[in-house]
Design goal:
Length: 534
């Protein structure tokens, strides 16, 4: 179906509206004009009839032998003076003494509306069809000196003449209406052009299509987007921005500084320049921000669009890669440790120190027999096994006794425990425990795991110095570290974040004998899964 242009719609609408209003007003005005003109002419006819009825000459003529010879000239002269169509004078029997057509003198008056004047002596106006056609009449009785009714005077104006008068008035009004219509059309053209200019020449269906496309695009963009106008009010934000920064539709139309006190969007409003990859903190989240000005029709800055992505996600990805690399390094350390022991064993055999070689083999065999019994027999998840094997090698290289509790038992982890999450949780906690005992002469780290009950439990303990009480509540904050080293303080924060995503919790406390214990509790079934089942 062919679409009608906006300009055409406006022209048709305004023109139709003006024409409708004009016709309606003309009809109303015509009705009142008719009533008013009819009333005026009726009153004029009545006054003329009344005036003539009081003329002494007319009264006296009724008593003469031939009244028509006296009254006819007077009536015709009076008719011309008042501009009436006719002036008819009759006696009490409605026999005409005066009429515009002399051939009708002496004949009975037509219309049947004389009784009120002849019988009751009333002065009034009436409508009737006479010998000259439909007319509006003024009726007045003629009284003698004793007050007796001796005749009647009828002054009339034809209805056709009244309609002609009204049409002339309406034609004048129509001229003004036409002028209004012309101005209305000119105004509608100017209005349509102005609207098209404001809408950049786009038709309504094109604007609607752009609006739908814009909403779909904004919904599909993972980056957060916020736009403000030149007054600094938030005009738009997409779902990613709301979810990322904890905002809602209630924040729309608010000042940007009321939502983000540290905003830098006003600088772009002032300069009109573009800003790329600016790192800042919004609502306690590290984000990377791009800011672009919105230009108006005259090239002025009309607003700013800010897009941002969560740096935390990038950090998490980098930390996960670091954990995987650390896991690879741990395996390398384990391989290096076994290689060193093989070199020692080879040297002892070449030197003939067979008893020492046997003792070394038996010692290592007993140690690995115990570890492998627990590691491979009781801990059945391959990712946990791989992490522990790597950390055992690393601990051996650092002369740390990494002990796996003999009471540990663990089946394969549920699907929500992907490799990256397990590496991040166990890798960070074991690394922190080994760092805590580096300066101790007797270095011990204990690992315990169980899936008895509804939770999966991991516990890592060390015999280090423990965690100072004043730092206990901050150790899971992003960027916080007990060591004055750059790029630290993200490991435990990531661990806590992942545990919370899995619906679990982490606890930490110091042991009376020294060292810290980190306990992780993660439900086997996610809470949202339980809700879907129930």
């Amino acid at each position: 179906m062919k679409r009608v242009k906006l300009k055409t719609k406006i022209l048709v609408l305004i023109t139709g509206l003006i024409v409708s209003i004009t016709v309606l007003l003309t009809a109303i005005n015509g009705y009142f004009e008719w009533k008013e003109t009819e009333e005026q002419i009726g009153q004029r006819a009545l006054q003329a009839a009344t005036t003539m009825s009081f003329m002494p000459t007319v009264r006296n003529a009724f008593s003469s032998e031939q009244p028509e010879k006296i009254i006819q000239p007077i009536a015709e002269n009076f008719r011309e003076i008042v501009g009436a169509e006719f002036v008819v004078v009759g006696n009490t029997d409605s026999i005409r003494y005066a009429h515009p057509d002399v051939n009708k003198l002496g004949k009975r008056m037509i219309g049947g509306d004389n009784d009120r004047a002849l019988l009751k002596g009333e002065y009034y106006t009436s409508k009737a069809v006479g010998s000259l056609g439909p007319s509006l009449r003024g009726k007045a009785p003629v009284l003698d000196k004793d007050g007796e009714i001796i005749g009647i005077i009828s002054v009339g104006f034809l209805v056709d003449d009244i309609q002609s008068i009204i049409m002339q008035k309406l034609l004048k009004a129509s001229g003004f209406s036409f002028i209004v219509l012309v101005f209305g059309i000119i105004g509608s053209v100017l209005l349509a052009n102005n609207i098209r200019k404001d809408t950049f020449g786009l038709e309504p269906h094109q604007i609607a299509s752009l609006y739908r496309d814009r909403n779909a695009i904004l919904a599909s963009i993972k980056e957060g987007i916020i736009a403000i106008n030149k007054e600094g009010q938030i005009t738009m934000m997409n779902d990613s921005a709301k979810n990322m920064l904890g905002l809602s539709n209630d924040h729309v139309n608010k000042k940007i500084e009321d939502v983000f006190p540290n905003t830098k969007m006003y600088a772009v409003l002032s300069s009109g320049g573009t800003v790329h990859d600016d790192e800042m903190v919004l609502n306690n989240r590290e984000v990377i921000v791009n800011r672009t000005p919105i230009f108006g029709k005259r090239g002025e800055v009309a607003g700013v669009v800010s897009s941002f992505r969560d740096k935390t996600e990038i950090n998490e990805m980098l930390n996960t890669l670091s954990e995987v690399r650390a896991y690879s390094e741990d395996l390398r350390a384990q391989t290096h440790e076994y290689t060193n022991k093989l070199y020692v064993l080879s040297g002892l055999l070449q030197l003939g120190h067979y008893n020492e070689a046997i003792d070394l083999i038996q010692t290592e065999s007993q140690l690995h027999l115990h570890q492998n019994k627990v590691l491979l027999g009781q801990l059945k998840d391959r990712t946990v096994q791989a992490v522990l094997l790597g950390k055992i090698g690393k601990a051996s290289e650092k002369k740390i006794n990494l002990h796996i509790d003999a009471n540990s038992s663990l089946e394969e982890l549920p699907n929500q425990f992907d490799m990256g999450k397990v590496i991040t949780i166990l890798g960070n906690l074991l690394d922190n425990a080994m760092e805590a005992v580096e300066n101790k002469s007797d270095k011990h780290v204990t690992f315990f795991a169980t899936d008895m009950g509804g939770d999966i439990v991991f516990e890592i303990a060390d015999n280090g110095d423990g965690i100072p009480n004043e730092m206990m509540e901050h150790i899971f904050d992003f960027g916080f570290s007990t060591k004055a080293v750059d790029n630290r303080g993200f490991g435990l924060a990531n661990v806590k974040k992942i545990i919370h995503e899995l619906g679990g919790q982490i606890e930490v406390h110091n042991q009376p004998s020294g060292g810290a214990v980190f306990s992780v509790f993660i439900p086997k079934v996610l809470q949202r899964t339980l809700q879907q089942v129930t």
